[in-house]
């Protein structure tokens, strides 16, 4: 088992480059690890695959909250190679103890778990259940296709409801939200009001993965709007926005409006303007979200999924 794991990790490190990973300082206790959104570049393969099309092409940022010698890593990124880089960078800054919190079960957020196999990996009960249910498919590369994640290192601790952690004296609130994926977990940092939103919010648009549950997602978007925060940092967004103070509540409104428009447009081509640029023109011109052309493909996929979703 150990030798298979080692081989797999070595293969992963050879296949996936981290040379476009950008480390960004987001405050005295927060680092971002941003990769992708690099013109003309793919990280894994020219063929369609989850790592490039769901992560690298759109841009993906995971985070670490740190204080003293302790760090809490929020998602393990696109590959074991990425997660090892993140761990090395934190170690170089004097971090000695690591914990991981997973934002949800999707592959671009859990692929690097093996780099933290000796650490506590925390996830919601729902995330654990979804990972367990899909473990064999994920490890074989048969869930969303290649690359497989083998071995899939499972969470070691789970929770339900809201939970608070202490990271070297800093309080971190884990706040579940049923948006984008039923097992979403966001992190709120009371010391400066930052909300790490995982994939509950995304710039340019949300990636629809549960088309039959969008009305539930809308309800939790309403709930989220009532929270007070100083900035929102999503996992998929524009690097300049993330480093430039983050997003505000208008990102929540833009997401709700987009989902409502998708539901209205489903199966009704007359309501479908030709492209994303027109579909959300008001929110683009208001600056709530920023246009990024690869989201046109996400938008087309979203329209298809919603139009063909059962019930
Ligand atoms: Zn994602």
Helix and strand arrangement:
Blueprint: H1 2-15, E1 22-25, E2 30-35, H2 50-56, E3 60-67, E4 70-74, H3 80-92, E5 97-101, H4 107-110, E6 120-124, H5 125-140, E7 157-159, E8 163-167, E9 170-179, E10 181-189, E11 194-202, H6 214-225, E12 231-236, H7 239-243, H8 250-265, H9 276-279, H10 281-286, H11 295-308
The site of zinc ion (ZN) has 6 residues, from helix 4 and strand 12.
Which descriptors would you attach to this protein?
single chain; 311 residues; alpha/beta; Metallo-beta-lactamase, Chain A; seven-stranded mixed beta sheet; five-stranded mixed beta sheet; 12 strands; 36% helix; globular; disordered N terminus; binds zinc ion
Structural commentary:
With 311 residues, this protein is α/β, with parallel strands linked by helices. It has two domains: 1-160, Ribonuclease Z/Hydroxyacylglutathione hydrolase-like (Metallo-beta-lactamase, Chain A); 171-311, no CATH class. It is built from eleven helices and twelve strands. It has helices at 2-15, 50-56, 80-92, 107-110, 125-140, 214-225, 239-243, 250-265, 276-279, 281-286, 295-308, and strands at 22-25, 30-35, 60-67, 70-74, 97-101, 120-124, 157-159, 163-167, 170-179, 181-189, 194-202, 231-236. The strands form two sheets. The protein has a seven-stranded mixed sheet. Strand 3 (60-67) and strand 4 form a beta hairpin. Helix 6 packs antiparallel against helix 8 (250-265). The longest helix has 16 residues, at 125-140. The protein is globular. The site of zinc ion has 6 residues, from helix 4 and strand 12.
């Amino acid at each position: 088992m150990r030798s298979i794991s080692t081989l797999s990790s070595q293969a992963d490190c050879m296949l996936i480059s981290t040379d476009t990973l950008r480390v960004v300082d987001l405050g005295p206790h927060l680092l971002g690890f941003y990769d992708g959104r690099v013109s003309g570049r793919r990280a894994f393969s020219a063929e369609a695959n989850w790592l490039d099309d769901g992560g690298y092409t759109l841009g993906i940022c995971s985070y670490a909250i740190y204080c003293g010698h302790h760090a809490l890593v929020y998602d393990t990124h696109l590959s074991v190679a990425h997660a090892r880089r993140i761990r090395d960078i934190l170690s170089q800054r004097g971090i000695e103890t690591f914990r991981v919190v997973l934002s949800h079960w999707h592959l671009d957020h859990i692929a690097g778990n093996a780099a933290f196999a000796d650490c506590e990996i925390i996830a919601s009960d729902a995330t654990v259940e979804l990972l367990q249910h899909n473990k064999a498919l994920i490890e074989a590369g048969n869930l969303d296709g290649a690359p497989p994640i083998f071995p899939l290192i499972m969470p070691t601790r789970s929770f339900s409801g809201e939970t608070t952690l202490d990271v070297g004296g800093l309080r971190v609130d884990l706040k579940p939200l049923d948006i984008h994926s039923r097992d979403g977990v966001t992190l709120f940092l009371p010391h400066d009001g930052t909300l790490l939103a995982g994939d509950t919010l995304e710039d340019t648009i949300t990636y629809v993965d549960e088309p039959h549950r969008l009305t539930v997602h809308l309800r939790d978007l309403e709930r989220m709007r009532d929270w007070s925060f100083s900035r929102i940092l999503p996992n998929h967004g524009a690097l300049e926005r993330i480093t430039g103070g983050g997003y505000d509540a208008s990102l929540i409104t833009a997401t709700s409006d987009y989902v409502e428009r998708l539901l209205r447009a489903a199966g009704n081509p007359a309501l479908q303007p030709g492209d994303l640029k027109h579909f959300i023109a008001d929110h683009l011109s208001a600056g709530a979200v920023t246009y990024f052309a690869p989201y046109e493909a996400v938008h087309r996929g979203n329209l298809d999924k919603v139009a063909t979703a059962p019930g």
